[in-house]
Design brief:
Length: 471
Amino acid sequence: MSEYKLTVGLEVHAELKTKTKMFCNSANDPFNAEPNVNICPVCMAHPGTLPVINKQAVHHVLRVGTALGSDLADFTEFDRKNYFYPDIPKGYQISQYKYPLVSNGMLNGIAIERVHLEEDTASSSHEGSEGSLVDYNRAGVPLMELVTKPVIHTAEEAGAFARELQLLLRTLGVSDANMEKGEMRVEANISISKTDKLGTKVEVKNLNSFRSVERAIAYEVERMTKILDGGPGEIVQETRGWDEGGQKTFSQRKKESAHDYRYFPDPDLPKLKISEISEFSIENLQAMMPELPWEKRARLVREYGVKPENAEVFTADKTLGGLFEDAIAAIGVDRPSIALIENYVTSDLVGLMKGSESIGGVTGKSLADLVTMIKDGDLSSRGAKDTLAILYAEGGHPHEIAKKHGLIQKNDIEALKKMVAEIIEANPTVVADYKSGKTALLQFFIGQGMKASKGSGNPAMLKTLFEEALN
């Protein structure tokens, strides 16, 4: 175990879902295949143009703050963050410095420092010897930045926080937060120390997957530990990137401080008095809150007896969660039935989906009907699995599917007795072994019965009949 204490603070950027950009009426569509089409004189910083605040974007950030239990600002303003780079047409980024929209709050046990609103930069692509290309479709897109307090002490804790934040943003409908598309980007501020005093901080930027977040932190802990234990090099306050292929960080530039950006209030934008805007009142914001992820998990466990790990599945996957609750609505709140629905969704259906997001032809009603057939003894476990597979691929009604494919469970004792006799007659050696004391072979005979009946035999009846015939 390392003698060094890891401390991490996260900065998470998320592109917000609005029709237009943050300060102009250009479309918020950064992934348009045609570069530089969603632009206008405002977001391209033509002389004489004036920005206008996107009200929807402000509303989105206040909703996030409400969900986090944060303090919402009454007074707020936008600032100019000055630096020169080709992806910033104006030579500065409009952001928030002294008066963020949201302060404090908590998520997944991690304390929040602030949540503020700014504009995104353009997308740059580096073409080697041909130079770099800049696509300004993304320039000016509303961007939320959430900053945690430096209270995270493991890589896994950081990854779990980022996952929960992504789920919250999607639940609120404020962002798709797709990390692969860059709609959500994580930066980790990392330090290690033997004491409670924080060590030299290193920032690792633009981590675009949860695994990258965890691995980058783990790599930095190992790198810093080697240096502090007498290895070559030194830890300096800097910005580092993450090399996904090499699974390591690399130095990018010296870390800037706030004064390097020469923040000052943007003179072209009005100050905002949040309490004077009725839609932004705390009563209206709370009234618009959907069921939050942690509330849904608790309800599923409390009301339906769902296993915690499956409550996580139903919360994280909106489609599976909706199917589960639709099936309950169709069958009624009956704990044994709910347990069957839970099992067939999280085990069999998820297996059929093979990582896709489609539940095929399965509906809440058809799943409820399938479970009813199991409880009524019309389908064996094997028959139910086969019926569900056909239901997923083709849709339809479970009873009609089972009947068409000969999957209705056979409860005809005389027919089953005949089948049992034939199986015993065909396996004299196994019969002898069973009678010599190898009673576990009973499962072999039941399996043969299920095979002969193509999964439609009642396993409980088969067990009884084989025991009677063999003993």
